[in-house]
Amino acid sequence: MTLLGPRTRNGPAGPGGPSAAPGEAAVSGSPPAGPAVWARDLVTGLRFAAGGGREGWIRTALTAVGVGLGVAVLLLGSSVPSLIDSWHGREKARENLGQANPPRPADDTLLYAHADTRYHHQNIRGRLVEPDGKHPPKPPGVAALPAPGTMLVSPRLKELLDSPDGTALRERLPYRVVGTVGDAGLQGPAELTFLAGSSALDERLGADRIDHFGLEFVQRPLRAPAVVLVIMTCVALLTPVMVFIGTSVRFGNERRELRLAALRLVGADIRTTRRIAAGETLLGSLAGLVLGAGFFLGGRQFASLVTLWDINVFPSDITPDPVLAALIAVLVPSAAVLVTLFAQRGVTVEPLGVVRSRPPVRRRLWWRPLVPLAGAGLLLTVSRDAGQVDSALNTTRLAVGATLLLLGVTALLPWLVDAVVRRLHGGPVPWQLATRRLQLHSGAATRAVAGITVAVAGAIAVHMTFTGMQAGFAASYARNGRPVVEMTGGTEGWEQTRQALAVLRGTEGVSRADGALESSVSAAGDPGRLMEGSDFRMVDGVFATVADCAGLARLAEIGSCRDGDVFRTDNLPDDTFATPGARLNLDPPEGFRPTRPPQVWTLPATTRTVRAKTADDGLPARGILITPSAVDVHRMHRPLLHLTVRYDPAAPDAVERIRTAAARINPSMAVVSLAENRHDGQYDSLRTGLFLGAVVTLLLIGAGLVISTVEQLYEHRRLLSVLDAFGTRRRTLGWSVLWQTAIPVALGLVLAVGSGLALGSLLLWLIDSAVFVDWPVVAAMAGAGAGVILLVTVASLPPLWRMMRPDGLRTE
Amino acid sequence: MTPAGSLLVAEALHKSFGQTHALDGVDFSIHPGEVVAVMGPSGSGKSTLLHCLAGIVLPDSGTVRYGDHEVTGMNDAQRSALRRADFGFVFQFGQLVPELTCLENVALPLRLNGVKRKEAQRHAREWLERLEVEDTGGKRPGEVSGGQGQRVAVARALAARPRVIFADEPTGALDSLNGERVMTLLTDAARDTNAAVVLVTHEARVAAYSDREIVVRDGKVKDMLAGLR
Asked: Do A440 and B97 touch (CB under 8 A)?
């Protein structure tokens, strides 16, 4: 044993053995020190924790849970970069739309086109392939490319297609399912994707010829706002966990101090007792490390069930950075031990008991607002440089500013609780008991409530940010969203456009459909110029739109019009090359393509200049407007088909039918519904996750509060028995427990709402979004706080009743 | 036989804790204004008898009557109400509520009985003066000496003008000088208000303040005056 240092050095002091002379221990100088002694004391503490009886085991278990949660949260946080990299990496590995320097047809090339669609607010990624030879490249997760008319699907898409909900989708994807795409070919387990074989792909219809899959993947650091959100989430989650650990390590403190006093009586010095106390916590910390790894590994198995911001990953993607994981494994248990030592500051364990040398702390205000103000100051300085928000300096300032603002709240709370309860006098007996107890011992309650404050403030701020962004989108859609579906894609010519319009106009629910072909033209003889350091060629062009007279009338005030007429809008620059009689090139020499012979077309001398109208997208039409007979569309390079379909919003599933019609016209066409706010789902999933996280955090804090309240009751058990002897009603003490919890929690929530709103407003200001307060969420958070108060009170009542027994009156 | 005019009477009380018989057929009675010392060695059942008499615990068998009321037939709420209204308590270590000032501690039983705060504190102040600790009113228990604290505890026991005061080793934590002063103040105040005092002690010099002594040994009671009557 190390408790009796000098004797240890001299060996055992048993009968017949060598022993120190009387008084030798007192004069032999300071007790032994060094790593070996430290280790032995820590091991002694470990043994006490393991054999310390019920309260020792409870403390160890609670510490283990706290440390475990902390470790799990940090491991999850440290996995975010690898998670994002894996997610992006798989997308890049399977993609090559628009390959730079497209190859010529060969045995190892294929035509490749996208066929994305959306079905009942879910994105479906689709790709079409048509090999040129026998050895085409294959994307990851695919053993063999599907033959024309067949497709490989992701497991989740197969489920959807096989379900009654997928009936309309089966019409849209007229391919026979012949297999599934492997995990390597999926972004995540919940992804809806298919790879279909085709025999009708055409570069003019939007297909690309490629000779490999996989795009270069450059790992980029997270954007500044994302860094802030991740840090704020971690701070909001970790603070309550640290508070919980702080509460756990104090559990059974009274008995531990008695034990340590007994050790002092047999000769242990103060430092030894502190090391032993740290050793007692170490067992819980080490168990927590194992538990945390278990929480993390077990929890990530459920990753496939979670989709946040359209991101859904495989469990294996959630892998922490090894260096960070090692740091977490060392730092979190060490933090728990430090908390134990911190809790013992000002406490001197003497042989006959414990002396608390700390005078009552008068909490000063002057320095406390400085922390959140420094945070706000940092955020405000960033906002002035909003244009460079992604710079490393700004990212750091944002992260530090947000963290200081959040944590600054915890500095303000003890002062606020002190300042308020100091002014509370009188009132009924329960109120008086509670306020007086808080006046003397507000530390434990304030520590626990600090966790609530940070969690709620963080949740409100992040919620507000997302709600503000979501509200911005919602307002934009409310302003611009109309029952219109826009489609763009490749085309074979005007005839196909006419047929497409006929199909769409015949679709149930469609009230009007217009179409045009869009391309650009340059001056004949203009060779273009290469971009510096690149093979990419650029040329000065003018937009050319081909449509029938009705279609052109939507774009400009053309007046009388016959097929064969050509117009130009009145908003072209004065020095434009597109003047009547000018020779134009319908296939401008731009892009990576090798230069080709110009497709010369003369702008008719009869071309009329007409006033441009503002198109549906709010921009004025600009360029040359051509009726179909006036030009051979096939001479244009990849003209873009643009279809605008209006529908009756009252017609059920009109958008889904339009999408299906579009897929039949050209599966590679991009279809966008202007009325559908795609961001709603993303924000909703995020906000739901946040709210659940905040509620779980509050429950954790509630558990910590229950522990500290019960611990406090236990320490006052004799007094409770005396009060019971006086005939004190149970409800009197029950109410006092309620008030004792409610006062700091209410103050914490007031502070949290204030600081959360301030931080949220700052963040919204930073991203130039209108400040929008989500009052229902604020009310829900306050309600959850009230729930915590009730939970703590109700959970504390049974032990309170038990301790109001005469057992505590016994003195013998 | 119940002595005539008794305020609190116990008959044939039995109380066991596991295999231990704390009370084994105990009879007891006390008159208004009488001070009865309950003596006996450690673990003899003195405190258990006090707790049974005060309705803090129920005996396994036997009855406790207070005036016309059978305490052992009351439910918990009724016994609590009885303790609030008619009984007062002094314990070995005072057991004052550390968060309240001494004045508030003394006022506490009155406030638990529904007396308004100012009225309760006025009464409490009078009792502090009578117990010679008026200067402790604004202090918390941790800021006063053991003797002062015990006097505050006596003031608290007397403040609601109880008809029975239960004192469990009231001087056990005090030096002899302070102990004697506390006993003098307690018994004088009790006699002035005609309150009965059940005084549990193992010290003969404390028991000397009583009118009558009973000894509890192995759960049985022996009235020291019985032979003299």
From this structure: no
